[in-house]
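Summary for the steering committee. One of the milestones for this cycle was to obtain a three-dimensional model of the protein with 3-methyl-2-oxobutanoic acid bound, which we needed before selecting residues for the alanine scan. The sequence and ligand used are listed below.
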Amino acid sequence: MNEPTPIRIFDTSLRDGEQSPGCSMTAAQKLRFALALAELGVDVIEAGFPASSEADRNAVRSIAREVRGSTIATLARCHEGDIDACASALEGAAAPRIHVFISTSPLHREHKLGLSREQVLERAVMGVERARRHVDDVEFSAEDALRTEPDFLAEVCSAAVAAGATTLNIPDTVGYTTPSEIRALFEYLRANVHDAEKAIFSTHCHNDLGLAVANSLAAIEGGARQVECTINGIGERAGNCAMEELVMALRVRAHYYNASTRIDSRRLVPTSRLLSRITGMAVQRNKAVVGQNAFAHESGIHQHGMLKHRGTYEIMRPEDVGWSQSQMVMGRHSGRAALADRLQALGFNLEEAALNRVFAGFKALAEKKREVFDGDLEALVLGADSAAARGWRLTRLHVSTGAGEGDTLPTASVQLLDTDDRSVSEAAVGDGPVHALFAALARATGVDLDVESYHVSSVTTGDDAQGQAQVIARVGGVEWTGSGTSTDILEASAHAWLDIANRIVRTGREPARTPTHAVPAAALA
Ligand SMILES: CC(=O)SCCNC(=O)CCNC(=O)[C@H](O)C(C)(C)COP(=O)(O)OP(=O)(O)OC[C@H]1O[C@@H](n2cnc3c(N)ncnc32)[C@H](O)[C@@H]1OP(=O)(O)O
Ligand SMILES: CC(C)C(=O)C(=O)O
């Protein structure tokens, strides 16, 4: 195979992505995300549209000054003021790019701009020339290119190259094209744009028909060497081409595309999460690569296959995109192989007859619960009523918190009963109320948990909604998930923490330190 063709990744999460309703970011958030994009290995970061607001100009300014390792681009209409605003905001950038655009399609020319073909062409040339007065790296975009007459598109692109454009972007602004059509258009433009070799061809696809990634890949086949995309596929309307999907398609199907990017794929999930946290826009569970279900398996036949060879149901390794591992979800569709494997990880090696008994109980429980957690499995094995299955129980909880000088330090005190009904009380301070609570529980039980993630969600509605807390901790290479439910989220959090601690103690994964304050409950009465 020849050397792979390098594909430039142009991320526009901070410009087109920010145009998604509800995705506006502050200047500080944009800078934080730009730094993450540079670390991810993005070639070009489109930082904003400086003419749109003072806030965006400030955001672009700080990104231009502080982010290194990626080209920083900004967008402008073919309008003197917009272009000059880009130049001023980009001052201090090590590698600045001005990106100018104008619509070329008949629909946009007539109804949006009220301009003839000749006038659009003149404006395009003016825009590129003015941008070139400021910087050497100028990108020209023909908005709504996929609904433009191909001969006129080639004419505008030729004029843009002659005026000094170094990148020619061919956007499918309304997500209208199909893979075979866009591939043919890129082939046509490469053959018909004058001095085409002086510029890099770029693709920018929207997802109105769910084809943005497929169309971007087809554009690469047609000769595009830059792909404009966003993390999580955010962007106008149905969004843009999702970077994580495109990058992994090129990686997984390397033999087919023979193309490579500079993206450090292990940073895809952390970057996706950072964007969700900043924008408050959650990623759908079944989203490819970065969705919670992307490497989760619930059905027995798949789990059985995965246990034999992960390649049976996974085309890429979760570790390669930033997940810690695949997830076997125990639910209504799971079979004996997955159950036996999970029980073994929890420290139970069951004979066939015992496994069959637990399996029957598991299936009955899974009919009632969407997901069967480790604690449920242990209760099935040990017998829900046995003291060993119950473990530590929370009897009292008090948490107080405050912030700043003069305020109370976040402090928690807890009282627990152990399996012999002896009472243990402990208190601790922490960085916040949950941290203090977990520290008090660790003292009381003698179990140190390395909490990897903590999440609270509402499971019912109304003022008295039940909150469900989920804690994920890793001990001895095994990931443990604990959950707890209560109308009080701190109590739910304590139950979730104890859910894991009890299981660790029961399975002897980590010897618990003997808590020092244990006294028989009767003595307190
Ligand atoms: C496909 C895309 O994603 S394009 C980028 C979309 N991004 C944005 O719109 C960024 C945010 N936009 C804004 O803040 C505002 O729209 C501004 C500041 C840019 C302009 O605001 P206003 O001056 O009030 O104009 P308004 O938004 O109402 O209309 C757009 C104007 O730009 C003109 N225009 C649109 N595209 C272009 C272009 N590429 N080149 C030159 N003029 C253009 C329109 O014809 C219209 O002109 P008119 O005011 O003379 O009728
Ligand atoms: C300005 C261009 C690149 C754009 O965002 C589009 O056409 O969708």
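Key point for the committee: Residues 16, 19, 49, 51-52, 77-79, 101-102, 113, 143, 173, 236 surround acetyl coenzyme *A (ligand 1) (CB under 6 Å).
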